[in-house]
Amino acid sequence: VGGEGGDVGLAAVAEGGHEEEAPPPGIDRGAIVALRSIGAAHTALDKIRCLMRVVECVASTLEADGASADQLVPAVCRHVVYARVKCVCAEIAFANAYCRDEALLLGREGYAMTSVAAAVQALGSVELEDLDSMGLQWVCR
Questions:
Q1: Nearest partner of 76 among 95, 94, 92, judged by Cα
Q2: Please, what is the Cα angle at 128 between 18 and 66, to 5 degrees?
Q3: Residue 76: how many CB atoms within 10 A of its CB?
Q4: Are 135 and 78 in contact (CB under 8 A)?
Q5: Residue 9, phi-psi category: left (phi > 0), alpha (psi -120 to 50), beta (remainder)
Q6: Which residues, 6 or more positions from 119, have their beta carbon under 8 angstroms from its beta carbon?
Q7: Helix, strand, coil % in the chain, rounded to nearest 5
Q8: What's the DSSP call for residue 43?
Q9: C-alpha torsion sign, points 98, 29, 120, 13
Q10: How many Å apart are CA 117 and CA 30, to the nearest integer?
Q11: Which of 33, 56, 65, 96 is 20 to 30 A from 27, comparing alpha carbons?
């Protein structure tokens, strides 16, 4: 994320302006920054770029760990929970509703948005006792 015009720089969104402790294993800092940046993104395209960065970072982490693509949605779930982003469903809905380039949603951007939306939807149906089996036991601390 970053680049032309009104793109939101990921570094521009710092939670409270201080450095956080290192995330737990399997959580990519870049994905967390991208998730936390989505609220500051003003256009649908900027929000989609944040979602793409999330998926790219998570996929890169999975690839480095030797995991398969089947692990993407559960891994994105862990990142969404760790990031504690408010209204992530509304951010995804905004991006989907106001994206002016339908062809964009058929490519990598659409895959990223769908992957994060699937993770958020899956989290909406999870019971607290299931967090441990998803590798999210640290959420309850």
A1: 92
A2: 70
A3: 28
A4: yes
A5: beta
A6: 73, 74, 76, 77, 79, 80
A7: 65, 0, 35
A8: S
A9: negative
A10: 19
A11: 96
Q: Is pTM, for the whole model, over 0.90? A: no
**What is the end-to-end Cα distance of the chain in Å, rounded?**
32
Maximal CA-CA distance, the chain: 45
Given a contact cutoff of 8 angstroms between Cβ atoms, the answer to whether 122 and 114 are in contact is no
Q: Are 6 and 43 in contact (CB under 8 A)?
A: yes
| Amino acid type, 28 | D
Residue 68, number of CB atoms within 10 A of its CB? 8
Query: Is 23 within 8 Å of 29 (Cβ atoms)?
Result: yes
Closest CA to 51 of 82, 99, 13, 92: 92
